[in-house]
Specification:
By secondary structure, the protein is α/β, with parallel strands linked by helices. The chain is about 25% helix and about 30% strand.
């Protein structure tokens, strides 16, 4: 009896394992594929799900002396009310924290997408290389993302950025610290 119970439990375990593997594969296929596309020259971030642009946000990018990294990265952690650490400076969560209320760390160590305590920097090349966002935009984006989401940071305009962010008429020149005359950096218009 003990032996048949073991076989029965082993069979149940085997069946359960196969069932979970098959269903996990089906579950993964039903989950949306999300990419955050960042255009440094446009100073914008687009949320793309299953090939469709869901939302575009204005951002701040790295300044010339501390540029944002370019390439494909993953979100590796997400933190609410982060503590800021940089060169012997520690800023606890709160209104003076340069990271704002949320942090999404990238697979490139030391870089992430976060808020700011300098909201007028949005639309400019002003950060130490991270991607800054206005608080409401950041908190909305944070609620939509998860660890493992892809972040693609592009340093030059191409067909993809033109398709997602529009024509180059409103593009902020790379390396400048403000939008061209007549362009509202918050709205891109």
């Amino acid at each position: 009896m003990t032996k048949s119970l073991y076989i029965r439990n082993s069979s149940v375990a085997w069946f359960l394992t196969i069932f979970l593997l098959v269903n996990a594969s089906s579950y993964a296929q039903t989950q949306s594929r999300r990419t955050l596309l960042i255009s440094i020259p446009d100073r914008k971030l687009a949320v793309i799900e299953n090939g469709a642009v869901k939302r575009v946000y204005p951002i701040a990018v790295g300044k010339n002396s501390t540029p944002s990294p370019m390439g494909s990265f993953l979100i590796v952690d997400r933190v609410t009310d982060p503590t800021y650490y940089h060169r012997n400076v520690v800023a606890p969560p709160g209104p003076h924290n340069p990271l704002g209320t949320r942090w999404m760390g990238l697979s490139e160590k030391g870089y992430g997408i976060h808020g700011t305590n300098a909201p007028k920097s949005i639309g400019k090349a002003a950060s130490h290389g991270c991607i800054r966002m206005a608080r409401p935009d950041l908190e909305e984006l944070f609620s939509q993302t998860r660890v493992g989401d892809v972040v693609l940071i592009l340093g030059e305009r191409d067909d993809l950025t033109a398709q997602v962010f529009g024509t180059s008429d409103a593009v902020v020149a790379f390396g400048t610290t403000s939008a061209p005359a007549g362009v509202n950096s918050a709205s891109g218009q």
